[in-house]
Structures are given as C-alpha cells and as structure tokens.
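In this supplementary section we document a worked example of the pipeline. Step one takes a protein sequence of length 121 as its only input; no multiple sequence alignment statistics are reported here. Step two produces a three-dimensional model, which step three serialises into structure tokens for compact storage. The input and output of this example are shown verbatim.
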Amino acid sequence: QVQLVNSGGGAAQSGGSLRLSCAVSGDTWQIAWFRQAPGKKRGAVSCIDFSDGRTFHGDSVKGRFTISRDNAKNTVYLQMNSLKFEDTAVYYCATRRSPLCSSNYSLYDSWGQGTQVTVSS
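The serialised model returned by step three reads:
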C-alpha cells in the first residue's frame, strides 16, 4: 500500500509562487497532482511518469507549474509560479497501480490528505 503525505501550500498573492510536496512511501509508477475548488469537480493538474521522467501539465497551468521528483527523498514537488486567483483550490497528490498518467481522478486509488492553496487577487 502506497502512502502519500502532502505538505506546502498556504496563501500567496497573484503573481506569486508556492511549492507543494508529496512524500511517497512505497513503490509506485507515477504521481499526479489534482485540485478541487469549492463547487467544482476535481481536476488534473500535472503528472510525472517515474519510468522515463516524462511530465504532463494541464493547459491551464502549462508554463507556470512544474512537477519534479527527488529520488533520494522519495518526494514529488509541484512548483507553482505566476499564480492566479483561479488556482485557488485544495491540491492532492495521487497515484494508481499503472505506469500511465491519467487525467481521470476516478482511476486513482491512493491519495494524499490535500493541502489548501489560496491566491488573492
């Protein structure tokens, strides 16, 4: 059973930066970040494939967010730059028993506890 622990997040002004962390216990093939704003569905943000290091980012965050992995620390990071008000949400890291990244949150079966990101305009 893979365990994921979120950390980071908090409050930032529009145009600012934050970094989220996801500490991973156990073996897995990939880590994805999702976010959910009040009244909205959980949506995919980014994903990193551990087999070849490929990364994927949603259109709304491309060029602003970067997902990366520190193998020595078993931690995946989400660096968020040029934050916008609409990035405000609870952010979750997640994984599933597959080497393939997916934007479908229902396919993921292990989740971090979530961390709040609030961007003020």
